[in-house]
Amino acid sequence: MGKRILLYGKSVLIAGLASSLGKIADLEIIRSENLDFSELTIPDLILVDLCDAETAHALPKLCALSGVPLVGIDPTASTMTVLSGESHSAQSAQELMAFLSEVMQQNPKPSPTSKVT
User: Fold this and answer.
1) What are 65-99's pLDDT values in tens digits?
2) What is the largest CA-CA distance in the chain?
3) Where in the sequence is the domain holding 43, given as residue range(s)?
């Protein structure tokens, strides 16, 4: 199985990413618009739209998912921020995918027996 990416929120950016990333064979794209992660398999990466006001309340809980990198995308500035403080520029889908692959390689996911709480 390939990498699992959780797209959190319901913004136009997240919908577009779901469509674009869903075409990549080695990715499993999971979408969520709520904070009930009890049935969620732990993803390798979480993406959020930093310009979507509705996701602001979810950031603390998303950050608390131990060992899962959280990446915020700001479409107004064409930047992606690993919420540990790193910021990167992306002008194309290729640059976005290169960045996401790098983040997932640097942050291996927790053991399969771990559960999201």
Assistant:
1) 767 889 999 999 888 888 854 556 778 888 888 88
2) 38
3) 3-106
Give the phi and the psi of residue 103 in degrees, each rounded to 5.
-65, -45
Integer-rounded Cα radius of gyration of the chain? 13
């779901």: which residue's tokens? 18
- Let me know: does 92 contact 48? Beta carbons within 8 Å: no
Task: Say what the pTM is.
Answer: 0.70
Helix/strand/coil for 105: helix
In a domain, 111, yes or no: no
Structure tokens at 76: 């107004």
> What strands lie across the sheet with 86-89, from one edge to the other?
27-32, 3-8, 45-49, 70-74, 79-82, 86-89
**CATH code of 42's domain:** 3.40.50.2300
